[in-house]
Amino acid sequence: MKLVFKNVDKDGKGSVALVPENTEDIWHAYNLISEGDFVSCSTIRKVQMESATGSSNSYRVRTTLTICVEGIDFDTQACVLRLKGRNVEENKYVKMGAYHTLDVEQTRKFTITKAKWDSISLERVDTACDPTQNADVAAVVMQEGIAHICLITSNMTIVRAKIDQVIPRKRKGNVSQHEKGLTRFYDNIMQGILRHINFDIVKCIILASPGFVKDQFMDYMIQQAIKSDNKIILDNKGKFLLVHSSSGFKHSLKEILAEPAVTSRISDTKASGEVKALETFYSILQTDPSRAFYGKKHIQKANESQAIEILLISDKLFRCQDINARKEYVELVESVRDYGGDIKIFSSLHVSGEQLEQLTGIAAILRFPIPELEDESNGESDSDEDN
Amino acid sequence: MSRHRDVRCMNYSEEYEGYDDVYGHSVEDDYCVSPSAEQFLFDRSKQQNIASFITEPDIIEDNEDNEELSMSFNEKDAFTDIEWAKLMSCMESIKNVIGDTVPESEIKKKIIQSKFDVKIALDLILKESSPKTATGPSMVNKDNLEPHPGKKLSSKSPFQVTTPSNVKIIPAGKRPVIKGFNVSGTENTDVLNSRIESPRSQSPYSDYNSPEIKRKENIITREKKAGSSNANSPRCQSPISGHETPDFDPKLKLNEEKVDVMKIYKDKRGDSKEQLHLVVVGHVDAGKSTLLGRLLCELGQVPSRLIHKYQQESKKIGKQSFAYAWVLDETGEERERGITMDVGHSKFETETKSITLLDAPGHKDFIPNMITGATQADVALLVVDATRGEFETGFDSGGQTREHALLLRSLGISQLAVIVNKLDTVDWSKERFDEIVNKMSVFLKQAGFKDNVTFVPCSGLSGENILTKPKEPLSNWYTGPTLVSVIENFKCPERHINKPFRFSINDIFKGTGSGFCVSGHVETGMVSLGDKVLVLPRNETAVIKGLQIDEVSTTNAFAGDHVSLTLSGIDQQNVGIGDIICNPQNPVPVTTRFQAHVVVFAVKIPIMKGLSVIIHQHSLVQPAVITKLVAQLHRHTGEMIKKKPRCLPKNSSAIIEITTQNPVCMELYKDIKELGRIMLRVEGTTIAAGLITKIK
C-alpha cells in the first residue's frame, strides 16, 4: 500500500489517502474503513441528462465522490471492497444524499476521513505500508480425493480451488480403476496449480498431505511437466516444499504453518506467528489453566489486575458495527500495551484466526495465575440459543 | 460392531444386561398406551437406555493414574501422606476386583470406614452392591440353561434367550448409580410425543412387558412387528426438521414393505454359514498383511502359481519377506513401499463360518482408512510384533497399537484376539510372550475389553501356529488354539434385519455393465433388487439395478453384508463416500449440528470450544467444529460436574455440540448404533470418541 498523505490531528480527527497495490491491501482497507467514515474515491456513475427539448440521455461519467459509509462488503475471491453509502459532497452529477456504491480496487487511490483515528487503525496503516511484509506462499493440502489450493499472504488465506473427487478404492484383482482415479485427481490438482498460482509472486509452494500422496503427486507433476515441456513448473521446481499434514482439509494448514521446515522458509509471515501464539495459549491452558483465559468478560477482569502478558485478538472485533464495542476493544488493547503486554491481532481470514473467533475472538495469556476467574461462569459468551 | 455385542457379551458381564432389549423391539411399543396410564406401567425403555449406555463411559481409560491424581487434588489435604498412599493402594486392589462398577468416591468412603483394610472394605462394597453383582452369574446360568434353538437362527436366538431373563433380573429403580448418557430424560419425551400422535394405538405388544410371556409367543409377535413396523414406520414421524420429504412413488413399495423381512432372511440365509467380518489391525510393520497372506495361502485360497510369482517378483526388488503381503497389497504403490495403505478385502470359509477378512493399514497416516475398515467389522485381531524393541515402539506412546485398540473399542468391537507375531525372531521365547501378554492385558482391560481376549503366539512368515498345531519349540510350552481356531471361536453378532434399511457408501466405482456401483456395508435392514432407494444427504432417489456380494449377484442383502449395489437413475456426481442409502419411507436424519456424549482420550491440548476436528462416522470423513461444550460429566457415574466448562481436559467425559461444514447423515445412538458413533480426530491423533445423543 502506498501512503499518499496523512493528516491526523492531535485529537485523532483527520484523513488518510492510500493507494492499494495488491490484494492484501484491499484486506487492510476493509479493516480500516468502518461505518460512518467518509471515503472518497474515483468512480463511475450513470447520469441521466435532460436536454432542453425534454429528451433524456444517460451517460456514464467518471467522477470522484465522497460517501458516508453505510455498508461494507469484501469479496475474498475477486479481492474488491464495495462501500455503500450516501453522497456527502455534492458535485455537478450527483446530488447530496444520493446513494452510491464505491469499488475500492487495486491501484486506485482512496481517501478515508475518520472522526477518530484510534491507535489500532493508525498501526494498520503503518503495517499496510510496510513493503517488507510481503510474503506470498501457496499451499496445496491434499489427501486421496480431496485437495485445497490456497494462497497464504501475511493477512489472508484464500482458498483458490477445492478439488473433491471420488477415487475408487482398491478392489480384489482390480486396481486399475483406483490408479486411473488417482491419475485424474493428480491431473486436476496440477491444472489447479497452473491456473491459480502465479509463480512470479509466490516464494514457495507447499505440498502437504498425509502418507505418500504428496510424493506421488510431485513425481506425477514433474513427469507430466517433462512430457509436455512445461517450463513454468520445471523452472520453479525448487519452490516446491513437501510437508506432512494429517489431512487434506483446510484447517490442517495450521499444522503446516507450525512445521519447522515451513517456518524457516516463510519466517516472518504473520500466519505462522499467529499459529505459534495460539499453540502457546492452548498448551498453557492445558498445563496451567488459571493463566489462560478467553471471552471478553474474563479478559477485562484480568486486564483490571494488569495481568495480561499476551493478548490474542481477532481483527473481526475491530470491524464490528457497534462503535462503542469497538471503542471498548481499542481501549482494552491500549491499556494492555500501556502495561507492557504484547498484542497479537489475528487475521480472521487465517485458519488460526478462524479458530480464535470460535473462542469468542479474544484470549489472553496471563503473567500470573488468577484462579478466581476460573470459578466465575463465563457470562456473556454463553448467550447461546438452545433450540 | 455394537449390534453384535449382546450375543457374545451376554455371558461376560452384567454390564451388558438389557443391552439387546433396546434393539429387540422398537421403543414405541412401550408407549402405545395413553400417557396417564403409562405412568403406572413398567417403563422398560428407560431402564434399558441407562443400562445400555453403561458400558460406554468406560470405553477408554487410557491414563488411569493421571486421572486419579487430578481427581484427588482437593481431597489429598485431608489425609497424611501415609494414609493417602494406603488409600490409593487399597483403591487399586479393590478396583482390580470389582472394576469400575462402583464410583470411586464410594470406594474411598468404604476404605476409610474400614480403616484401610482392603478385605473389609471390599466386603462392605460387595455387600452394598450385592443385588447388582448377583445378577451377573445368575444371568449367565440362565443363558446357559436356555436351549439354543440352533445356530442357524442366530439372528433370533439372542432375543429369545435374553428377554425373559432380563426382565426378571433387573429390579426396577434399584440401580444405585446412573451411568452414561442422560438420554432417556430428554429424548424419550420427544419420542413419546410423536408416539402418541402416531396412528398406531394398540399393537399386539402392549403386554410385552410381562415377563411371563412365552418364548414362542414372543417369536410370533416379533415377526408381526417386523412386518408392521416397516409398513408404518416410526421414522416417518421422526423429528427431522426442515428435511425435505423425498418424492417417492407411494404405491410402489407399500405392499412389498409388508413382506416379512425375517422370513426372507430365513429363506435366504437359513442354511448358509454364518457371516463374520474380521478386521486385522496393529502397528505398522507388525506383519498384518503377511499374516493374512500366509493364512490365505495355507487355506488354499491363493493359487500356488500366484504366490510363486509374488515370491519371484518381490525377490527382484529386494523385498522377499513381502511376498505374502502382496496377496492383499495390490496397488503398485503399496508393494513398492511395502506398507498397506487402504483396507484389503479377502474371504475364506471355515467349517461353520464364512469369514470376510479386512486388512487394515497400520501406518499412522492411514488411520482414517483403518477406521472405515473397522466400522465394517464384527470382530478384530490385533497383531503385535514380538521382536525386541518393535513391540515397545508400537505399544508405547506414539505407536498405533494403543490407538487402534481404543478405536476398536469405541467402534463397538468387543471381541478381540491378540496375535503375538514374529515370535520366531525371539526363538519362541515363552518369557517374551508372557511379558507381552501381561502388558497387553492390563492395557486392554483399561480400554474396556473384558477378559475374553485370547493371545495367540505365531509367526506369519514361517506360518507357525496358523492353521496347524505348532511344532517344536513352540509346542513345548504352548497348547492353546491356533489362529484359525481362534477365528472359528468368535461369536457371530446379531444382525438388525428388522430395522429400516441403511447402507453406508464406502466406495464408488464403475461397474461392468451400465450405471455405476457403490460398495459398502448394510448397517441395518435389508435391500432387494429393484428397490427404490434414497441417497442422503444429497436427497437423490435411485433404483437398485444390481446386487453383488463377493462378485456374485443376488437378489437380497441383509444387515451385516458387504455388498456392491448397481444404481441407476442417479448421477455419479451426486453420490459421495460416506453418504447413506436408505429407504425413502424411513429416511435417515440429515443435520449439520448435533450433540454427542464423548470420552476424551489422552490429548495434548485440552478440547475447547471452536476446535476444528475431523469427524469419522462409519465411512464418512468430514471436517467439523466443536461449537459448544454443554457439560462435563463424571467419567464413571455420568453425573454432571460442570455446566459449560471452559475446556475439557484429557480423560474426561462430556456432552458437546458439533457443527459440520456440510450436512451429514446422523442417527441417534439409541436408534441405530452403527451410525450413532463418532470419532473426533485432530492432527492425526484421535482425541475423542462418542455417541450421538441429540440431532438438531
What's the short story on this structure?
Chain A: Belongs to the eukaryotic release factor 1 family. Pelota subfamily. The complex is a heterodimer of chains A (387) and B (696). With 387 residues, chain A is an alpha+beta fold.
- Low-pLDDT sequence parts of chain A: 378-387
Number of helices of chain A: 12
The oligomeric state is heterodimer
Query: Averaged pLDDT of chain B, please?
Result: 72
Question: What are the key terms here?
Answer:
heterodimer; A: 387 residues; alpha+beta; SH3 type barrels; Nucleotidyltransferase, domain 5; 60s Ribosomal Protein L30, Chain: A; 7-stranded antiparallel beta sheet; 5-stranded mixed beta sheet; 16 strands; 30% strand; disordered C terminus; B: 696 residues; Rossmann fold; Elongation Factor Tu (Ef-tu), domain 3; 4 domains; 6-stranded mixed beta sheet; 6-stranded antiparallel barrel; 22 helices; 34% helix; metal ion binding (chain A); Protein pelota homolog (chain A); TF_pelota (chain A); Pelota/DOM34_N (chain A); cytoplasm (chain A)
Account of the protein in words:
The complex is a heterodimer of chains A (387) and B (696). By secondary structure, chain A is an alpha+beta fold. Chain A folds into 3 domains: 2-130, Roll (SH3 type barrels); 137-268, Nucleotidyltransferase, domain 5 (2-Layer Sandwich), CATH 3.30.420.60; 271-382, Ribosomal protein L30/S12 (60s Ribosomal Protein L30, Chain: A, 2-Layer Sandwich). In chain A, 34% of the residues lie in helices and 30% in strands. In chain A, the strands form 3 sheets. A 7-stranded antiparallel beta sheet of chain A has the order 1-2-7-3-4-5-6, covered by helices on one side. In chain A, strands 10-9-8-11-12 form a 5-stranded mixed beta sheet. Chain A starts with a strand and ends in a 12-residue tail after the last helix. Chain B has 4 domains: 1-239, no CATH class; 275-305 and 340-489, P-loop containing nucleotide triphosphate hydrolases (Rossmann fold, 3-Layer(aba) Sandwich); 501-585, Elongation Factor Tu (Ef-tu), domain 3; 590-695, Translation factors (Elongation Factor Tu (Ef-tu), domain 3, Beta Barrel). Chain B is 34% helix and 23% strand. Chain B has 22 helices and 24 strands. Chain B is globular and about 75 Å long. In chain B, helix 6 packs across helix 8 and helix 7 packs across helix 8. In chain B, 51% of the residues are buried. Chain B has 696 residues and is of the alpha+beta class. The interface between A and B is large, with 45 and 49 residues.
